[in-house]
UniProtKB/TrEMBL annotation:
The keyword Ligase applies. Pathway: Cofactor biosynthesis; adenosylcobalamin biosynthesis. SUPFAM superfamilies: Class I glutamine amidotransferase-like, P-loop containing nucleoside triphosphate hydrolases. The lineage of its organism: Bacteria, Bacillati, Actinomycetota, Actinomycetes, Kitasatosporales. This is Cobyric acid synthase. Keywords: Cobalamin biosynthesis, Glutamine amidotransferase, Ligase.
Amino acid sequence: MSNALLVAGTTSDAGKSVVTAGICRWLVRRGVKVAPFKAQNMSLNSMVTLDGAEIGRAQVMQAQAARVEPEAAMNPVLLKPGADGRSQVVLLGRPVGEVGALDYRDRKPYLLERSLECLADLRRRFDVVICEGAGSPAEINLRAGDIANMGLARAAGLPVVVVGDIDRGGVFAAMFGTLALLSAEDQKLVAGWLVNKFRGDARLLRPGLDMLHELTGRPVLGTLPMLPGLWLDAEDSLDLSTAVAHAEVVGPYGADVLRVAVPRFPRLSNFTDLDALAQEPGVLVRWATRPEELADADLVVLPGTRATVADLAWLRERGLERPLRERAAAGRPVLGICGGYQMLGRRITDFVESGSGPVDGLGLLPTTVEFGREKVLGRPVGEAYGERVEGYEIHHGVVAVEGGEAFLDGCREGAVWGTTWHGALENDGFRRAFLREVAALAGRAFVPAPDTAFAAAREARLNRLGDLIEEHADTDALWRLIEGGVDGELPFVPPGAPAARTMEGDRL
């Protein structure tokens, strides 16, 4: 039994993450013990496992879809881009260094070995492992060192299903072109296509699907309809336009809408902190890049960032510092989370992340910050507003509190709150209590819905993904691929015959 499958995509944001999650949920509902896997993930959206390892948030969501506890082996390599063109490399949940693109290339053979070890371990412990690729498998300039797409598939013997986003247009060209650019050896592992985000009459699409099958020798294994409102743990900035856009703006529990504005930092991280606000009836969450976009907000949230000092400079360049100061002086609510909390303090000393040394903060909280080389990773538990709060921490900046009221691990002064805890707003009781105070300070007749449960909303969306696969994909064909891999060589000789190339090791 192959017991594994790789979900690749024609582009970033084609839907690999949600399709992987949907397959995991479909399988676990059939009684299969399944685990997700992504060898290499480039994302600023991460979470901490119970044993203190940092992995991509998408793999945490996929583990939830599989109803298993997330672990470092599910995402052995995580790249976190910084402000200087370099990325922090997180290996098996722990940071191991900062690299540029060329430096990272030299590390790939070692990282592929570690990733294959993790995949083999998961395959031993689970009935099935559903792997997610990264970007596109046809990035031919990167194929020699690929560890997440065809490089992984070749090394581990994985059948590959390629997802294409038809909503963008050009899906047939993208699928044909993806296959045409692969070597003959890579092509052998591509078993079929999944058309994603389809709107309209399937009868009009049918001739194109048949022609794609004829041209490539691979069948279309499903046409998945567009599912609006699935703000499931967006992985990267391509998802931000929809990540917080699906709140029920008019709710039955209050006459007023509560408006939340969030500065869209260039190195924004862990923006899933906003998901729980966005799903609250009567709460409108929107991104802000100009001072006037903060003007009518009842709450401004400064989110996490991979580059606190650089994004603080961006905030000032955009003219957002003055309205924040005016809000604080007028007693209008501001919440800072992790990097956003660090910005609210009096001074930031950073010789680690930015190398900038001492930098003046916004001065809205009585705190100072000093960056340490050791990253703080944890799953803290505490209490606020009489409610139990669970969260997670991922930061280099260590905050010293020099006054104000205690608030989780951070502090509060007037209408300004700050905490290093991500995920706090996912706790329903705490979120409702916090929003009640925000509404009171903002003078809004807003009452949080007493029966809104964030965990239940996420579970319902994961079930919708399972339904998506079960109802619109050829699950018999998927199961055959999982059980037996690709059966024989699939033909494909496009004009120009790029398939005639051969592979030698990992080099074209």
